[in-house]
Amino acid sequence: MMKVNDPTTEREDLVNLYHRAFEEFGASALWSSKPVPDPTPADALAITHSLRVEGNLEARRLAEQIERLCHAAV
Fold first, then answer.
1. 38 secondary structure, DSSP code
2. Are 33 and 46 in contact, with CB atoms under 8 Å apart?
3. Angle at the Cα of 11 (from 60 to 41), degrees rounded to 5?
4. Which terminus of the chain has a smaller tally of CB atoms within 10 A, N or C?
């Protein structure tokens, strides 16, 4: 049985959301950023501002998901 707050699962979720951000919003919101292959929570938080400012509502929601995951790990 998997724990709800499993750090491995949270890390995988964060990496997936990070890569999804670049796949979906790279050209429109993250054009000034370069994706890293193995992002840390700091890497993920670094793109949330651009998602909010340069992106649409869906980009903002993705930024919020990334922030929640990063702050839950603290």
1. S
2. yes
3. 55
4. N
E strand segments, 5-52: none
Residue 62 burial (C-beta neighbours within 10 Å; 0-12, 13-18, 19+): buried
Residue boundaries of the structural domains of the chain: 7-28+39-72
- Calpha distance 51→61 (Å, rounded): 9
Lowest-confidence pick of 7-11, 16-20, 58-62 = 7-11
Q: What gap in Å lies between CA 50 and CA 65, rounded to an integer?
A: 14
Average pLDDT of the chain is 90
CA pair distance 18, 1, nearest whole angstrom? 26
Q: Are 30 and 54 spatial neighbours (Cβ–Cβ below 8 Å)?
A: yes
| Interval 12-22 mean pLDDT | 96
Place of tokens 């702050």: 71
